[in-house]
Amino acid sequence: MKALKYLLLILILLNIPTFSIAFISPGLGSATSMLLLLCVIIFYFMEEKLRPIIPLVILGLSYYMISSLSYTEDTSEFIKDLIKYFIFILGIRKFASLTSKQEICFILLVGAFSIIINALLFSSAFGRYSGFYVNPNKAGFVCIIGFALTYSIKQKNIKLLSQFLFAIAGLMTLSRSFILLFVLVNIISIVIDKKNIITLVSGVIALVLILSLSSLQLNTDRFNALKSIFSDDVDTTTITKESRDETWAIYIDDILTNPIFGKGYKKLHGKPKGFYADNDIGVHNAFLMIIGEAGIIPLMIIVVLYLSMLFRSFNIFHEEPIYFLVSLLLLSYLMVSHNYFDNFLMLFLTVWLYDKLKSHDNTSLNTI
Q1: Residues 182, 291: one domain?
Q2: Mean pLDDT score of the chain, rounded to an integer?
Q3: Do 88 and 163 fall into the same domain?
Q4: What is the DSSP letter of 150?
Q5: Are 291 and 301 within 8 A, CB to CB?
Q6: Is residue 276 predicted with pLDDT exceeding 70?
Q7: Around Cβ 211, how many Cβ atoms within 10 Å?
Q8: How far apart, in Å, are the Cα atoms of 125 and each of 129, 216, 273, 331?
Q9: Could you tell me if 321 and 208 lie in one domain?
Q10: H runs (alpha helix) in 47-131
């Protein structure tokens, strides 16, 4: 079972199916996607059964049922996505409960290595790197989640090295979200323990190293904007260019057209012009995507789910501060990404956090 467990963790946390589709072949991508779901099913039947996360089940039912009302495209794609979501959500709870913070951290560290290797050995004119994660913004999210989980590592040297590598990899994505959340996580960690200021130092060293690597091919505009932060003339134009609020504004009219039931499945995901919409970038906000495609009911469910996890984790902040950090980062990522129901990494971390908070609640009740 251990081999199956780590195979499943690698497939989910290293984004193998999506990476295979993008860089190897669609056939291998489909095969690894099927392998992932097959592993979930096998693990489910071989281990003790746990109750699935009911809010995620209700969220999925409401989203797919309501968004299907206005869906007029290929039905097979819709059914396939629906089945994948429910297999994953219904089967992953026990697996998540058996996964530790350190296991997630070290596998994400492998993912961070892939970003560094991508930048050093497979540089491109685009100048933003993502390794196994295909999308630099998703890669930045992985790095900040991994960075937060390093606080669970007891060995000081391993912890500092891991934080340094996550910082280096995150900066190579040139993700504005990563940089902002990196600063936020460090501030919170210093509030937890003033000794954690050394982790901020490791981040500064990583930044200096990136800025000094003239041979590294980084996105010119974003790299220069990053350097301008340390000068008297900050490049605010590039820093705010194509910001998420500008992207959200593009879709506001679509959302307001039918906020009760939405416009239908994948209408706000972004496709080539002439497919679903005139914009091919997607709304880049899970909350706006859900209300725009399926209306206010699933929106209320997902908002309550993630806010409840944030408040519950805040209530045990002094006992388990990492849960609060992960909850805050998940909520932040939902604000800048519209891939949710097919994002197994995001769904796994959600189930994992929910399970840990539930287990803590049960433990607290048993001790009263």
Answers
A1: no
A2: 86
A3: no
A4: G
A5: no
A6: no
A7: 15
A8: 10, 11, 25, 32
A9: no
A10: 54-68, 75-91, 93-97, 101-121
Residue 218: pLDDT above 90? no
Summarised one tens digit per residue, pLDDT across range 10-67 is 999 999 999 999 999 999 999 999 999 999 999 999 988 888 999 999 999 999 999 9
Amino acid, single-letter form, for residue 296: I
- The conformational region for residue 144 under phi > 0 = left, psi -120 to 50 = alpha, else beta, is alpha
Same domain assignment for residues 150 and 252: no
CA 317 – CA 256 distance, rounded (Å): 38
Q: Does residue 263 share a domain with residue 353?
A: yes
Claim to verify: residue 151 and residue 186 sit in the same structural domain = yes
Q: How many domains does the chain have?
A: 3
Which of 197, 218, 241 is the last residue in one of the domains? 241
End position of a domain, from candidates 211, 241, 271: 241
Query: Which segment of 23-37, 199-213, 229-243 scores lowest on mean pLDDT?
Result: 229-243
Do residue 231 and residue 268 come from a single domain? Answer: no
- With beta carbons less than 8 A apart as the criterion, state whether 16 and 10 touch: yes
Residue 348: which residues within 8 A CB-CB, separation 6 or more?
Answer: 12, 13, 88, 92, 96
Higher pLDDT pick, 266 / 143: 143
Could you tell me if 104 and 200 are in contact, meaning their C-beta atoms sit under 8 angstroms apart? Answer: no
Contact yes or no for 37/87 (Cβ under 8 A): yes
Say what percent of the chain tops pLDDT 70. 86
Task: Give the helix/strand (H/E) hosting 158.
Answer: helix 156-172
Query: Cα separation of 210 and 143, whole Å?
Result: 16
What residue numbers bound the domain in which 192 lies? Answer: 101-241
Q: What is the pTM for the complete model shown? A: 0.90
What is the rounded CA–CA span in Å between residue 49 and residue 9? 19
**pLDDT tens sequence across 123-147:** 777 778 999 999 999 999 999 999 9
Confidence label for 213 from pLDDT (cuts 50, 70 and 90):
low
194 vs 269: CA distance, rounded Å: 42
User: Phi, psi at residue 259, to the nearest 5°?
Assistant: -70, -10
